[in-house]
Amino acid sequence: MGIGKPSQHLNEKGLSYRGRKYTPALVHTILTRETYVGRHYYNTKDSRTNTKRPREEWIEVEVPAIIPEKTFDKFQAILKSRNPKMTPARSHSSPVLLSGLGRCGNPGCDGTMMPMNGKGGQYLYCSCSNVRRKKDRTCGNNNIPMQQVDNAVVEVLKQRLLDPARLEKLLAQLLERSAGADAKRKRDIVTLRNERTAADTAIQRLFESIEAGLVDSKDKDLKKRLAGHQSRRAALDEEINLLERQCGSKGDRIDRDTLAAFAAGLKKKLTDPDNPALRKNYVQAFVSEVVMTKEQLTVRGPVASLVQAVSTPGADTAPGRTSMVNWRARQDSNLQLQA
């Protein structure tokens, strides 16, 4: 029966999960959730990157069990043995350029765009997950050739985002070299250093509390609090270093020449035919969402990734994914596609 049929059966019965329709992915999550055997976990995801944390960083909370452990373990073994893919799918290992980024742009649709193939794999296209997985055709059959989408996104990055003049506009505040701008940066550095001192103090107090026996080193909230302070301290260090660089000598500052070199280097890597995996890394670094319809493609991405990349030595190195404000200003990042 698999896990597709149960989701279809539940939806046909008019049942929902917290107001949402059942999907195979949701059914799988429910069937593998350890909460039902008495173990619930917090701190399973990094709130900044939305990526799953290592299991050793999870915080376990004991809850009432409603399923015997032996029954759960037996079912997990069966589920695993019938899994056609012994390892879970991961967007970063997929050869698809826009893996995990596509969204259906048809009115009222909240589906993602998933890779599909036809004619024995000869024809690759992106299709709305609501149509493919939920059999919900209310948004229409939004199928778009994958190569057409890939080419359009790379072209948007090359011609729109990596245009030196556009980079200057997006990073104008970073490039401002007036005395007033430097004075503001210096004030901001003082504020950030104070915040960093506070983060250091909080970390030190946690360790002192453990040494004094005031806090149990196995306290379930301790690891979460410590990780939060350490993450904040690392972010503050990055901000302080960037501001200090922009207040420093002329040779250290990020300027128009830096942006031009960054744009040229990244354009070359985006069009490197010998390394498609590297091209995907760069696209995934600078693009957070691609909204697709048959008529229009809208590309969005975080300005924070640009700042991080441009301010890093060897500035054409792809930064990690972040989720902050978009470099897509208004509608000028759209690229029209032929239906």
Describe this structure in a few short sentences.
This protein has 12 helices and 9 strands. The chain is of the alpha+beta class and 339 residues long. α8 runs antiparallel to α9.
Structure commentary:
With 339 residues, this protein is α+β, with helices and mostly antiparallel strands. The longest helix is centred in the middle third of the chain and has 33 residues, at 179-211. It folds into 3 domains: 4-91, Hect, E3 ligase catalytic domain fold, CATH 3.90.1750.20; 95-175 and 254-339, no CATH class; 178-252. Residues 85-93, 315-326 and 328-339 have low confidence and may be disordered. The protein has a 4-stranded mixed β-sheet with strand order 3-7-8-9, covered by helices on one side. The chain has 12 helices and 9 strands. The protein is flat.
Give me some keywords for this one.
339 residues, flat, 45% helix, 12 helices, Hect, E3 ligase catalytic domain fold, single chain, alpha+beta, 9 strands
Element string (H = helix, E = strand): HHEEHEEEHEHHHHHHHEEHE
Structural class: alpha+beta
Mean of residue pLDDT? 76
What is the count of structural domains?
A: 3
The coarse silhouette is: flat
Provide a count of the helices.
Answer: 12
Indicate the radius of gyration in whole angstroms: 24 Å
Largest beta-sheet details = 4 strands, mixed
Number of strands: 9
Which stretches are low in confidence, meaning pLDDT under 50 for 5 or more residues running?
A: 85-93, 315-326, 328-339
Distance between the termini: 37 Å
Strand arrangement within the widest β-sheet reads 3-7-8-9
* Helical amount: 40-55%
The portion of residues forming beta strands comes to 5-15%
